Amino acid sequence: MKLFNTRTYIALGLASIVSTVLLAASFLGLVPDRQGAVRAGRLALAESVAASSAAFLSSPDPARLQDVLRFIQKRNEGLHSIGLRTREGRLVVAVGEHARNWVSVKTGRAVDGQVQVTLFAGDQQWGQLEMRFEPVSPPGLASVLQTPLVLLLAFCGTLCLFFFPSTCTACCGTWTRPRRSPRACVPRWTR
């Protein structure tokens, strides 16, 4: 017993082939990874800020460093706060609402948008630079549903399922089976 007509099975097969090709392209690295690029950019920003902050660590005036960090925060839209914490855990410089919103990485509850870089003064570990960004992806099921690959698969699959049967009908008319040959499908206008 057939549940669907032949065009629907062909459209499902086409959607499966397109989805398989897109998944293979993603696994081979041919589909760009936006979230990975955002994370790499944030890490590069944090490392460059840490390198420039190390020059100000020996300065007796933390206001100059705070002005630089405030400028960096204003120039980066998704950056919520920046903090410099000593090795003992004391917050020396904070830009934005860093003290209230920072979740320690050691607790295991740190969010996706937090970056922490170790700071050195000479050969000694001085402390750490902490940067809190807007999360790259929302938490929960929304994170999976908003992944660009999932959206691309849904778009292409929907296009195959709905566009292909309507294209067959528009090009060839309504598909019927002649009485003498039950397996052949020919358009009505050819009879």
What's the total count of β strands? 6
Helix fraction, binned, reads 40-55%
Query: What is the CA-CA span between the terminal residues?
Result: 27 Å
SSE series: HHHEEHEEHHEE
Largest sheet: 4 strands, antiparallel
CATH class of the largest domain, please? Alpha Beta
The average pLDDT is 80
* Rg for CA atoms: 28 Å
Number of domains: 2
What is the count of DSSP helices, taking H or I runs of 4+ residues?
Answer: 6
CATH architectural label of the largest domain: 2-Layer Sandwich
Uncertain residue segments: none
| CATH fold node name of the largest domain | Beta-Lactamase
**Morphology:** elongated
Strand coverage percent: 15-25%
Task: Give an overview of the whole structure.
- The chain is an alpha+beta fold.
- The protein has helices at residues 6-27, 34-56, 62-75, 98-101, 141-145, 148-172; strands at residues 79-86, 91-95, 114-121, 124-133, 175-176, 186-187.
- The protein has 2 domains: 1-31 and 140-170, no CATH class; 34-133, Beta-Lactamase, CATH 3.30.450.
- A 4-stranded antiparallel β-sheet has the order 2-1-4-3. Strands 5-6 form a two-stranded antiparallel sheet.
- α1 runs antiparallel to α6.
- The longest helix is centred in the last third of the chain and has 25 residues, at 148-172.
- The model has no long low-confidence stretch (mean pLDDT 80).
- The chain crosses the membrane at residues 9-31, 149-173.
- Keywords: Membrane, Transmembrane, Transmembrane helix.
